[in-house]
Amino acid sequence: MTLFESLYGRRYRSLIGWFKVGDVALIEPELVHEVMEKFQLIMDRLEMTQSRQKSSANVRRRELKFAVNDWIYTKISP
User: Fold this and answer.
1) N or C: which end of the chain has fewer CB within 10 A?
2) Which H or E run includes 49?
3) Counting Cβ atoms within 10 Å, is residue 6 exposed (0-12), middle (13-18) or buried (19+)?
4) pTM to 2 decimals?
5) For residue 16, is pLDDT > 70?
6) Dihedral sign (CA 52, 57, 62, 65)
7) To the nearest 5 percent, what fractions of the chain are helix, strand and coil?
């Protein structure tokens, strides 16, 4: 499995054909099952990491309250 496929859940669509006609072989069911298990493991670890980062960010976040006619500074990037 490529890094792109593990991150985005789909294969990278390249304009280059990697296989010649007739070179495609049959894939064994055990191999497919093993790949699906590894893919699920990667997805679980990504979800766990995202959850950890989200909880860490929420601890530092504070709620901002503004009233009418309050002056605020904004940073605008071009």
Assistant:
1) C
2) helix 29-60
3) middle
4) 0.47
5) no
6) negative
7) 50, 0, 50
Neighbours of 39 (CB within 10 A): 14
Residues in the chain: 78
Q: Which two tokens stand for residue 35?
A: 């790949």
Nearest to 27 by CA among 15, 36, 17: 36
Q: CA Rg, the chain, in Å?
A: 23
Residues 41-51 as b or e (16 or more Cβ within 10 Å = b): ebeeeeeeeee
